[in-house]
Amino acid sequence: MPHTMSRMGDVLAGFHAAWEFESDSVLIRYERGIRTPKLLQALGERRVPLSAVSAVTLTPGKRGTVVLRAELRPGADPLLEAADGQLKEGCDPYRLVLPAERETLAEYYADELGAQLTESGPAERFLVTAPEPPRSFKAYDGKASFDGRTVSFRWFWTGASSAKWKAGDQSFAIGDLSGVEWRSPEVFEGHLRLLRRGETGPAQVDHDPAAVVFGLGYGPVHESLPFAAAVLAAVRQCGPAPVAAVPRRDPADIAERIRHLGELHQAGLVTDEEFSVKKAELLAEL
Q1: Residue 107: what are its φ and ψ, rounded to 5°?
Q2: Bridge partners (DSSP) listed for residue 66
Q3: Collapsing DSSP states into helix, strand and coil, what is residue 169?
Q4: What phi, psi does 271 have (nearest 5°)?
Q5: Phi, psi values for residue 152, rounded to 5°
Q6: Which entry of 15, 217, 252, 263 is 20 to 30 Å from 8 by CA?
Q7: 76, 126 in Cβ contact below 8 A?
């Protein structure tokens, strides 16, 4: 007989979240308190099939805590696929932080869950449900909306580039897309770019009518990432997407971007570390 949790329906509550154990899944409910990261509040809850989990770990945390974490299989969750490793530790939806005195209980559940896991390696399809549309958020240069079938960008005259104004407001059918590129608003040059089948846009996102730019408080993680995940899930449901070619930038464009980056650095708007990292990224694109 397959191993099953000894007490189905048990709930393990930690800081910011609680895990409810079921026969074939874990239901994670996130608190809505002011101390809970906004992304987790926005997600509300996530049902994670055990088939989506490759391992469960228990490690020491900070300041007298332990951390129970579910490691998901690559490709199992559209949110993690869209995030592409850019989420900060505190926003990881699969970390449950508990007081150290509950370590024995946490270890019990880690062992019970681990004994039920039978899958590993990349998942052939998304196993965790994506955030539901409709969704929208304000970027720096426009408003992005998704109704489940079409992604729309409506430009703001205060932020959109002349190239985007000339192109006009945009609408993209899900069937015409091959994927989504999300770059966190918490880093330099954060953006959301729609990848179109058989097409490549301009290297600079502020000139690409299939992209919106973050910054200055626009496109926050808790709004733009669930949006990206919902779009990505809809795209995958349309069938296998061809691999999008990554355009290489023109050397003159790279030089201009580095010059602009240097001006921001001299003005104190970019730190020494940010300047070095971004400059290296730009040079690597040559």
Answers
A1: -65, -40
A2: 60, 98
A3: coil
A4: -75, 165
A5: -125, 140
A6: 15
A7: yes
Is 232 found in the same domain as 263?
no
- Tokens 């301009």 -> residue: 202
* 47 contacts: CB under 8 Å, gap ≥ 6: 25, 26, 27, 28, 128, 129
Query: How wide is the angle at C-alpha 245 spanned by C-alphas 242 and 249, nearest 5°?
Result: 165
Domain shared by 175 and 217, yes or no = yes
> Which residue range forms the structural domain that includes residue 98?
11-116
* Residues 94, 21 share a domain: yes
Amino acid at 237: Q
Q: Residue type for 11, please? A: V
Tokens of 132: 């539901």
**Global pTM exceeds 0.70:** yes
Tokens representing 98? 């508990």
Q: Give the amino acid at 276.
A: S
Asked if residue 22 lies in contact with residue 7, where contact means CB atoms within 8 angstroms, the answer is no
In this structure, what token pair is assigned to residue 260?
């602009």
What would the two tokens of residue 183 be?
Answer: 């770059």
**pLDDT values of the chain reduced to their tens digit, one per residue, 286 residues:** 344 554 557 999 999 999 999 999 999 999 998 999 999 999 999 999 999 999 999 999 999 999 999 999 999 999 999 999 999 999 999 999 999 999 999 999 999 999 999 999 999 999 999 999 999 999 999 999 999 999 999 999 989 999 999 999 999 999 999 999 999 999 888 999 999 998 887 789 999 999 999 988 899 999 999 999 999 999 999 865 444 444 555 676 677 677 777 777 777 766 787 778 777 777 776 6
CB 217 within 8 A of CB 190: no
95 & 162 share domain? no
In the chain, the amino acid numbered 37 is P
